[in-house]
Amino acid sequence: MPGNIKGLAVAIVVLALAVTGIFAWRSMPDVPFTAGPSGSGPQNGGAPDAAEAREDPEKLRLAAREAGANELGLVPILIYHYIGEKEGRWTRTPENFRRDLQELYDRGYVLVPLNDYLDGDMDVPAGESPAIITFDDSTAGHFRLLEKDGETVVDPDCAVGILRDFGEKHPGFGHTATFFVNAYPFGQPQYWQKKLQLLNEWGFEIGNHTYSHQNLQGLPPEQVAKEIVRLQEHVQQAVPGYKPRAFAIVQDGLPEPYETAFSGESGGIKYKHDGVLMWAWSAARSPYHKEYDPGRIQRIQVFQDQGRSSLVNWLERISAQRYVSDGNRETIAIPDGWQEVLKEKHGKKLVVYKPNEPMRTPGREKQATTARGVHVTFSYASSRDRWNKILELTENARLNTVQLDVKDESGRIGYLSEVKMAKEIGAGRDMMPIRDMLAELRDREIYSVARVVIFRDPFLAQKKPQYMVRDKNGNPLAGGVWVDPYNKEVWDYNVELAREAYELGFDEVQFDYIRFPEGIAAHTAIYGAKDDRHRVDVIAGFLRYAREKLGWNRVLSATVFGFTGYAADDLGIGQRPERMAPFVDYISPMVYPSHYSRGNYGFANPNAHPYGVVDGSLKDFRELVASTGCRIRPWLQSFTMGPPAYGRKEIRAQIEATEDNGIDTWLLWNPGVYYKIDNIIT
């Protein structure tokens, strides 16, 4: 919640306690407090008994629902390397670091110790979320001491100074962080012992990052143990008896065997870690999640990613699935639908409640991450017999997903839409009993994706000529099939269609043709609502706007040209995957081998090398979007366009290339909706 609201809430609570003296209530953050008719106490007319409230299942559920609790949600563990004067890939300025803390505070996060996370015992107020800050490499900007007026003081622009100052000014937020150190940390060798002592005294944690910042990959186990033990002994020179409980891998250098990162011995001295932290890129699992792995804890690097804070990108991305506390350390509170990912042994009382609004659930996420299916046009699906063939295909080819046109390249909609613009121009067609079809897919546990074509919309351009893109002479560009990507009303029309698709029951919406028209004439074309933004900013801006309107509680994806992963620019159409990725859950590159040019990925005829082209393209896309957390779900070619003809061999090669890249989700495209089971099934 915003800082001013936090302050107001604290003031109200303090005033209530002073007036009524109900100090028993203060120790019970899980019990909702609302003024009764007299304005003097809890709803039941007096301070409830603490033990009774903590045992009453209904009160526990009510408290969890009021807090919006989800203690199986994601935890952001942030990583910084340098705090310095110039922002860069590895450096955060003091001012931006302060902004990061403010961002966390405003969004209802509090800082918790990494060791509490490892123990599964985080103390977080009801309705708020834990965040963990880590620093690798113990560089000078992390902790600097200055001589001032004969005294040694903390530099207010180093990380320790900023954290302590912010924590003091924002009560309840905390200032804790974990510093993964190497030999003689933080520069200023005359102070290294004093600095470690002060960190320990002030409630910070010290982690092991090897003595000499050593990449452990390929090292013999005895050398790995020596690096870790030597750093542990070094820390104990300053803080006797202190044993770092966490270890941070250096440069993704994984030791072999991996267990040596956890425990070992060198020179008769033993070490044992409770957690091993990886480099990036993901928020971390809750310690109560069955897939929580203390040996591979994920982190998020904070930096300016394509001009936008990676912290903001990630906090937005996890907003609908973040860890939210019920304020009761004796319970694990989760919304209904999350039980399947709770680990068996957790030592807490489980509280499951019905959320006020539908939430993203692990089951739905698993469907999305393993979606394998085909594209279907609404014309094809309008026939019951043909629709039955699609249902049979999904069963017999072991598919689990159907992507169905909502608004296609013609600008028409396959059902009678209730969206205002669609009704006004008559875009809807009564071709599909859409609700019945989606219910049928749900009953069969088939994941449904709504395809909404955005800026190629000849029907809207015809009915609303003011939106049409025209060439420099004022004539309809390309026959009048494009509408203005700058136009806010065009944006709103498509966002409302997406909203309607979710309300109808689609599991996901995928935007297609999110681009400017191609070709030389398009560069000099007339766009009625044009402003000074670059094409890339316009396309990314549309996706950002759509996400803000639709929220993160729904799965949203976007289709892009496969060649945008290979190209150095936007191809003149405004598509740059790394700029689009922060606002969608999945980016779907059309990695059709027939669409690549001679020489791409080293092939004279890329179309004849489906495995190599798809493999190379997916590697390019993964590198481009890795820092954003966006997943990749490629469109694969299930049609023939030039030699060779595409059959089982070529289609299976693309599927295998996708899976060999660790991607379990893909979609097949055939414009005629012609798919053969034998070409798909293993």
Automatic annotation (TrEMBL):
Domain NodB homology: 174-248
Keywords, in A-Z order: Signal
Cellular component GO terms held in the UniProt record: extracellular region
One GO BP: carbohydrate metabolic process
Compartments, as annotated in UniProt: Secreted
Domain of life of the source: Bacteria
Segments for region (Disordered): 34-57
InterPro entries: DUF4015 (IPR025275), GH (IPR017853), Glyco_hydro/deAcase_b/a-brl (IPR011330), NODB_dom (IPR002509), Polysacch_Deacetylase (IPR051398)
Residue span, DUF4015 domain: 373-675
One Pfam family named in its UniProt record: Polysacc_deac_1
Main location: secreted
Gene Ontology MF terms in the entry: hydrolase activity, acting on carbon-nitrogen (but not peptide) bonds
Name of the featured protein: DUF4015 domain-containing protein
